[in-house]
Design a protein that fits this description.
This protein has 260 residues and is an alpha/beta fold. It has one domain: 3-Layer(aba) Sandwich (Rossmann fold). Helices cover 44% and strands 15% of the residues. It contains eight helices and seven strands, in the order E-H-E-H-E-H-E-H-E-H-E-H-H-H-E. A seven-stranded parallel beta sheet has the order 3-2-1-4-5-6-7, sandwiched between helices. Helix 1 links the parallel strand 1 and strand 2. Helix 3 packs parallel to helix 4 and helix 4 runs parallel beside helix 5. The longest helix has 29 residues. The structure holds hexanoyl-coenzyme A. The site of hexanoyl-coenzyme A has 18 residues, from helix 4 and helix 6.
Length: 260
């Protein structure tokens, strides 16, 4: 679909890069000539993807780092720059989620998801900033369409992702003068991911398929292709947007999923 080597000679750091959507982004970036660093809370979540990336012939760093821990994130960024020489692209993909009605959610449950999704995005962006400033760069925050409507059982994740979208706009304005573009991607339900396994059931999946104007769930490649676009020079004048990649689903989701 794209010309080869859209990201040649660049280095990307992808938090949550071992699995799901972010694994797909890592592999797509590597196929376009990008050296890739991936982080996750646990090294064992990274090892299979690290090996797949190496098999594509790029240089790879895999580091355990919890995005909730600013010191660990700083160390991971320092390791990326020391081993791969530079940092051009940051993908903030690490996320936590589960379904729980607000009335049953503990303060720590709410805070845990905000800490991972929102504060983790800030921590990694802040750690990456000095290196991105060196040549200009691109930050992509993985968001969600959850906050656009009142999504039941998602008070924690919706609040966190709404905060992520706000951060995307503010950092786009503050960091644009450094030649750093900050954008987001809001995926719909993506086939085969942990998020969809945890958050959907047979019924909600069937409703999503029926409501989605394109009559399918998304694929990891759909999100990887959007990331390639936003990270590359093809999007050199795109700054501060969150690109919805959901086949138009949320526009038809005013009816509550599961109640049809
Ligand atoms: C209610 C829960 C809960 C659940 C955890 N908690 N799971 N509350 N229902 N199912 C509460 C705990 O009781 C605890 O509060 C607090 O959250 C922290 O839990 P821990 O297990 O100690 O935290 P931790 O191990 O740090 O992380 C928990 C986690 C994480 C955030 C749930 O394991 C996780 O998210 N894993 C899934 C990763 C994932 O699927 N990522 C993709 C997200 S998809 P108390 O008060 O008891 O101490 C996505 C896109 C959505 O975001 C869009 C899809 C359409």
């Amino acid at each position: 679909m794209f010309q080869p080597n859209l990201l040649g000679n660049r280095v990307a750091l992808i938090t949550g890069g071992g699995t799901g959507i972010c694994r797909g982004i890592a592999l797509a970036f590597a196929r376009h000539g990008c050296d890739v660093a991936i982080t996750s809370r646990k090294l064992e979540h990274l090892e299979p993807t690290r090996d797949e990336l190496r098999a594509l012939g790029v240089r790879v760093v895999a580091r355990a780092a919890d995005v909730r821990d600013p010191a660990a994130v700083n160390d991971a960024v320092a390791a990326v720059v020391s081993e791969l020489g530079r940092l051009d692209i940051l993908i903030n993909g690490a996320a936590g989620n589960f379904i729980c009605l607000a009335e049953n959610l503990s303060p720590n449950g709410f805070g845990t998801v905000v800490d991972i999704d929102l504060k983790g995005t800030f921590n990694a962006s802040r750690a990456a900033l000095p290196h991105l400033k060196a040549r200009g760069g691109s930050v992509i925050n993985i968001s969600a369409t959850l906050p656009y409507l009142g999504t039941m059982g998602q008070a924690h994740a919706s609040a966190a992702k709404a905060g992520v979208d706000s951060l995307t706009r503010t950092l786009a304005v503050e960091w644009g003068p450094y030649g750093i573009r900050v954008n987001g991607i809001a995926p719909g339900p993506i086939e085969g991911t942990e998020g969809v396994r945890r958050l959907t059931n047979e019924k909600s999946r069937e409703v999503a398929l029926r409501l989605c104007p394109l009559r399918r769930l998304g694929t990891v490649d759909d999100i990887a292709n959007a990331s390639l676009y936003l990270a590359s020079d093809a999007a050199s004048y795109v700054n501060g947007v969150t690109l919805v990649v959901d086949g138009g689903l949320w526009l038809r989701s005013a009816r509550i999923l599961g109640e049809e």
